[in-house]
């Protein structure tokens, strides 16, 4: 069940996501989770992701990622992709991304992204307005796992 602080998007597993064994080919999860991050910006943070890239010239590249593939997903499965914020740094956001199907955990990712100037190619401080929006998706302190709160990059 989705927690109040989580952003959720549903994705149907299609033939294109699967390998010859009939299960999701693991790199496809990274594509699906990137789509989730874009959906979070558009629908959760009310920030047009296309404008962020094309107009503001800001990106959110991954600087750290760790993934556990818990159970396979197959064509026809509907995944509930969920995003929660663990920590917000000066320019970084630590995320927990999960995929469930029928309440069964399939994949869990710990990922750190950084707000980044595409022109200057340097991290950019998260604005106070954006920080307030992001904060709505932050995992409450008592629900955090200590091993997941490693030092963030700025």
Task: Give the SSE map.
Layout: E1 7-12, H1 26-44, H2 49-54, E2 58-59, E3 62-69, E4 78-88, E5 92-101, E6 104-114, E7 116-117, H3 128-135
Antiparallel strand pairs: 1-4, 2-7, 3-6, 4-5, 5-6
Question: Could you please describe the fold and organization of this structure?
Answer:
- This protein has 154 residues and is α+β, with helices and mostly antiparallel strands.
- It has a single domain (7-140), classed as Hotdog Thioesterase (Thiol Ester Dehydrase, Chain A, Roll), CATH 3.10.129.
- 21% of the residues lie in helices and 32% in strands.
- It contains 3 helices and 7 strands, in the order βααββββββα.
- It has helices at 26-44, 49-54, 128-135, and strands spanning 7-12, 58-59, 62-69, 78-88, 92-101, 104-114, 116-117.
- The strands form 2 sheets. The chain has a 5-stranded antiparallel beta sheet with strand order 1-4-5-6-3.
- A hairpin with a 3-residue loop joins β4 (78-88) and β5 (92-101).
Enumerate how many helices there are, as a single number.
Answer: 3
Q: In the CATH hierarchy, what is the superfamily?
A: Hotdog Thioesterase
Which residues sit in consecutive blocks of at least 5 with pLDDT less than 50? 146-154
Number of strands: 7
Please identify, by name, the CATH architecture. Roll
Instruction: Give the overall pLDDT as a whole number.
Output: 92
Give the helix/strand class: alpha+beta
C-alpha Rg (nearest Å): 16 Å
Portion in strands:
25-35%
